[in-house]
Amino acid sequence: MSRLIGWDIGGAHLKAALLSKDGELIDTLQVPCPLWRGLDKLESAINAVLVVFKTNPHDIKHAITMTGELVDLFTNRHEGVIKIAQFVEHLLGRQCQFYAANKGFVGINQVAENTNYIASTNWHASASLVAHYCHDALLMDIGSTTSDIIAIESGKVLSAALSDASRLQQDTLVYTGVIRTPVMVLAQKIVLSGVETNVMAEYFATTADIYRLTGELDESADMAETADGQGKSQLESARRLARMVGYDFEDKTIDVWVQLAFSCKAAQLMQLKKSVLKHLTPNVPLIGAGAGSFLVKALAEELKATYVSINTILASKMSVTQNVQSLEVCFPAYAVAQLSIKANLQ
């Protein structure tokens, strides 16, 4: 088998994982991909990955999962899946396999009849790989925009819901993340200097501002534009956050704005905790992945559950040629690549 790239095509980012012919991880990469602005953004992102990986796409196999079909560039998800698949196959060549959840992998000619299984099932790929190594677990992948909560029981992915609509209803998909989420959706009221205050329903700040101020956001994952188009320094992040509660940055000290950031973090943790409690069972570890894995760890501590990072699981179960920092962020891309290898070996 030739080398393989796993691709996770999102609406805001493109994630990729390069594996050797033996399935060893060589490299991972996340690049910005504002897909709602046009398919040319996807082309630029794919080309950027191929340059870093030093790879000719026609000399390699490709395993693809996606969530980008939901952007409003497309009329509906069915159209989005088909157009993305056709576009990617045109760029990468015929050696493309598309992940279709319970149906496994399909070729380009089978995409149109399987769009419901291909659309937004990157979480299923992640959970399916974890299920190979964990008999019982609750996988929580907190990304830039969304959080996936997937139970694994007896080595099986325990989810009757595949679509975004069903998963939203079952609290296995929570639309909150650590980078792109507007602060205004975390809570209607927040505590500032011991006083409860209303939060403005304005797009002044995002969760990336919060976690820059708390010092928990990895700079390598911080790729999205800011709400005001300005920089990402502590001062600029605090300035945006101050606007959410009717102040200017200069009205209070930086320590106050850092404390406000921690109050916002507590509000987001409360949102996530309500959903996690619907799925977490006693003595089951909470597995963290994504740019917001630090929140999974915080939840595990609060709920007195065992926390295990996805890096720890993979390091103990398979050979990795190098320590790749972004593996947690790019886990769905890595997972779909590994599942493709396992499928082809059967």
For the residues shown, what is the average pLDDT?
95
Approximately what portion of the residues adopt beta-strand conformation? Answer: 15-25%
User: What's the domain count?
Assistant: 2
Q: Give the name of the CATH architecture of the largest domain.
A: 2-Layer Sandwich
Share of helical residues: 25-40%
Word description of this protein:
By secondary structure, this protein is α/β, with parallel strands linked by helices. It has two domains: about 5-125 and about 310-345, Nucleotidyltransferase, domain 5 (2-Layer Sandwich), CATH 3.30.420.40; about 185-270, Nucleotidyltransferase, domain 5. It has eleven helices and 14 strands. The protein has helices at about 40-55, 75-90, 115-120, 120-135, 165-170, 205-215, 235-245, 255-275, 295-305, 310-315, 330-345, and strands spanning about 5-10, 15-20, 25-30, 60-65, 95-100, 105, 135-140, 145-155, 155-160, 175, 190, 195-200, 285-290, 305-310. The strands form three sheets. Strands 3-2-1-4-5-6 form a six-stranded mixed sheet, with helices on both faces. Strands 7, 8, 9, 10, 13 and 14 form a six-stranded mixed sheet that branches. The protein has a two-stranded antiparallel ribbon with strand order 11-12. Helix 6 (about 205-215) crosses helix 7 (about 235-245) and helix 6 packs across helix 8 (about 255-275). The model has no long low-confidence stretch (mean pLDDT about 95).
